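BACKBONE GEOMETRY TOKENS:
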Amino acid sequence: MSFWDFFVALVLGIVEGLTEFAPVSSTGHMILVDDLLLHSKELFPASVANSFKVVIQLGSILAVVIVFKDRFLDMFGLRRKSDGAAKGGPRLKLAQVIVGLIPAGVIGVLFEDYIDEYLFSIETVLIGLVVGGVLMIVADRFRPRVPKADTVDKVTYKQAFGIGLFQCLGMWPGFSRSGSTISGGVLLGLSHRAASDFTFIMAVPIMMGASVISLYKHWDSFTAEALPFFAVGFVSAFIFALISIRFFLKLIQRIKLVPFAIYRFVLAALIALVYF
């Protein structure tokens, strides 16, 4: 692997890790950085480039598992959390996460081919960035003043399903899965931290499922020549996702969603200026 190949894999992994779970659209950032600066499609065939984006997502998923490992062990009955939720209070259950996954799972199965064929373009990403930003402003403006669920352990099944409906918006490239689910959670009465926690926990099974399907489709692209490229992207995405998740969970409680919405508008304007 040449130094340039290493650099491209490293930078794309960093971009993925930093933006996958922030409500700013990792798709928009990948398009901007890759198409303008790196041109990864010129290094490998399209199938390899597509598989690479899946592999670096797996690095981000692993970071979530590490950050929330105690929570996952608790949901699977392997360990009780040591906080107040384990002392007779409500606890987030695996069933609630599954309920939250149902809407996006159904929509994904029914419309996956349509989304891949018609929604991955600069124009659709711009629409997703702007409309998603508006949703975030609406969420901060009209959220309940006193959250009904100030921790993720207090999320109800009704709230989980409602957040799952909002998650469907994240299938539109540029909309941001985390942006739509956090906004939906806040509108439904969750605190910003509780909505973020639930969003990240739901991300693991839904991103894992999408990744496994994509890897199966592009398995032939895992050649000896491409493996070092994949490895660098995976590791860099994991490290920077680990950093960004911890930082974001602290930041979202302080600044809420509006600053992220403004950033999305600026990003959309920059992409529009460059491409049009």
Summary: The chain has a mean pLDDT of 90. DSSP finds eleven helices and no strands in the chain. The CA atoms of residues 96 and 157 lie 6 Å apart.
